[in-house]
Amino acid sequence: MVNASAGVGDTKRDRQVLICQNRTCLKQGSAAVLAKFLAVIRPNVTVIPTGCLGQCGSGPVVLLLPDKVWLHSVLQKDVPAIAERYCLKK
């Protein structure tokens, strides 16, 4: 697992989706969210399971880089729309 502050997403061309896989987010379905992102995302986007992103009361939490967009309470059914809006940009 990666710490979100470990320098990921430092360049504009890097598109990354960080998905919390810590205890609280896991209880709220983040494993299914991770699996769905892995299924729908294009090769130019890196999906990264992370440790706690510090937003435990709002899980599952997703951080989209380099845009620095924080999403909370993400459900598996939300992933295709998120991917279309943020991750499939050129």
Please provide a written account of the structure.
This protein is an alpha+beta fold and 90 residues long. It has one domain (15-87): Glutaredoxin, CATH 3.40.30.10. 28% of the residues lie in helices and 21% in strands. It has three helices and four strands, in the order βααβββα. It has helices at 23-27, 30-40, 79-87; strands spanning 15-20, 45-50, 62-65, 69-71. It is globular and about 30 Å long.
Number of helices: 3
CATH classification, class level: Alpha Beta
CATH topology annotation: Glutaredoxin
Mean pLDDT: 85
Instruction: Report the principal-axis shape.
Output: globular
Structural class call reads: alpha+beta
Task: Give the percentage of residues in beta strands.
Answer: 15-25%
Write out the strand line-up for the largest beta sheet, numbering strands in chain order.
2-1-3-4
Oligomer: single chain
Instruction: Report the sheet with the most strands, covering strand number, pairing sense and barrel closure.
Output: 4 strands, mixed
The CATH homologous superfamily = Glutaredoxin
* Count of distinct strands: 4
- Distance from first to last alpha carbon: 27 Å
Protein name: (2Fe-2S) ferredoxin domain-containing protein
Organism: Oscillatoriales cyanobacterium SpSt-418
